[in-house]
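Re-run with default settings, no changes from the original entry. Doing this only to confirm the output is reproducible before filing.
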Amino acid sequence: MRLLLVAFAVGLFGWCQAEPLKAVTTPMSPYQTLEEGVVSGSNTDWVRRLLTEAGVEAEFAIYPWARAYQLARSEPNVLIYAIARTRERESEFQWIGRIASFELAVLVKSGQLVSLRHSLSQQQRLSLALPRNHAAVPLLPDLPHFGQLDVFYTASTDEALQLLMNGRVDAVVENPHLLPELLEPYQLTSDAVQVLLPVPGSRSDAYLAASKTTSTAVAERLQQAWQRLYGDRQELEAGPPD
């Protein structure tokens, strides 16, 4: 009888969340930021609004990309944003909603663009940095001159960019549209870095996703709330993913 009353109460008063989710992301101003200890930014605003619509609670945390990605792959009740939806990742997550589109490129300092192009044409080796578990990793073998690249993996995009700015590597892989925000800490404008090579097959979509072991009921609730709020919008005016 008691179990029947509980079941009746849940059906009468609505869905009951077993425990809060953890929503993880990585620093990428102005889309994902940490301001006075609070995870903020335009992408975060979209996710918070979604959670309110769905009646779901979550604790927000910001980590280097490699750690955020590992948490979302290995633990239940984890949301991650903004993550590229790629063929390799398709079965590893429950995909909630599309935030934006993006395309990647190999980026170098503008002053080195001509010399590095010449180095590639002369079959000389170049060094390249990007975060571990970045969406570009499985695409690297498709790069022209891939056999000439020495690849260094970092914990975050910021760390890779620091290696480039400090002359420790020749290039990084990132979305060129992010350059104004990425270069702001160095007091540089976006023309300080230029595209050396596009990354073939890198055009994809950025998503909010849930870890594979998150309750299907929770994931479906979030997907339904996403459709109510955002429908089939092409863009949410949000930031590119990792």
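Residues 1-15 have pLDDT under 50 and may be disordered. The chain has two domains: 21-102+204-230, 105-198.
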